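Listing S7. Sequence submitted for prediction.
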Amino acid sequence: MISEFPYYVFDKELPAAFCDGLVTMGLANKQNSGGLHEKDGTFFDPDVRESSISWLNNSELSEILQLYAQKANEAANWNFHVMCFETPQFSTYSQGGQYDWHMDVGVESEDDLVIRKLTLCVSLNDSFEGGDFQIQRWCTPDANSRYNTVKEMRNKGSILVFPSFMFHRVTPVTKGQRYSLACWFRGPDFE
């Protein structure tokens, strides 16, 4: 059975102290502007994406995220064949920061044998306004409401998992800073 909204949420799943630790780790690393990837390379467009990112290369963290991705993959009945994952990305969205509609699919290079199949996002704080996570619905082109605001992602410690081919966005932050973590899980191309 396909649910109305193509995602799986673990609301307020991770402890606050754990989230605070991830924010500390993310901010301790050098942050760069979040880029946009196309076939010819990376480019920057603040009208599409305005955020700072760093990478959290931590095996224990990756294992924890992998468990949640596997659980969501089974519980949502997607059952995608996933073989590996990318290094988790820490993001800071300051006031005005946002990431317009996009998908996470694709490959890093033409010889990649695995594609992004599942995206996992973690909300690391709740002391911001705006910055809503919105995702496309399974719907027809003439539907009145084509997306849903995932209200649970306003809660610190919430985890969201969804197919990487779904359009999604983060609306502009209007107050404070929004901290989040994303990780992508890869497998062979869909047949």
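Caption to Listing S7: primary sequence and predicted structure tokens for the chain studied. The chain has one domain: 8-29+48-187. The chain has a mean pLDDT of 91.
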